[in-house]
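Example (one chain per record):
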Amino acid sequence: MSSDEDNAQDKPNLATEEYWNDTYNVELDNFKNFGDPGAEWFGHSIGLKMIKCIQSNCKISQEDSILDVGCGNALLLIQLAKLGFSNLYGIDYSAPAVKLANSIVKDQNIENITLKEFDFLTDDVKTLPTFSLVMDKGTYDVVSMDDESKEKRNRYKENIVDLLQPNGMFLIVSCNWTQVELNAQFGDVFQVVHTIPTPSYQFGGAVGNTLSATLYQKL
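Predicted structure:
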């Protein structure tokens, strides 16, 4: 077997539920043993930028409903709860992730976050309420890694649209897709409201961004 094949076998498959269950089981143990809630996906600073964007660019009240798709340990929702947002909902297909999130929420005495084990691509989104704002920090990236990426990305977009109330907002952060690519994929059902500045890099004379972060509004 070649070294490339060895590396391919050793590389974790982030598109599988098994990977995330294993990851969050470790983080759940760390929280139980050491009180460590785990990492914030893409780092703490991007979460703060998302919150600032919500406060400044989303025409929603603190009572309006907000969903985090692929909420993981729910740290983003917890930050919103501490700022007074009171109608917060998080879903994740990983049972250990939801268990961890519930443990953290309970530990911090937060009562206005509802968490649910839910597969966004296979479960019926019509069983969920509709929302003024849907957030995604990395979940679309995971969907895009799947071998059936195009079909699942289309299902993802349809479900986002179905879950949003008229003129609802969609806030997405991605490390796999550029701003232009996200606009191409979502531009038929959303319009850009705001683009969040993210860290940039320069290579070979070209300038790019390590993340794309965009607030859209449903057409």
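Caption: Strands lie at 66-69, 88-92, 113-117, 131-137, 164-174, 190-195, 200-203, 206-209, 212-218.
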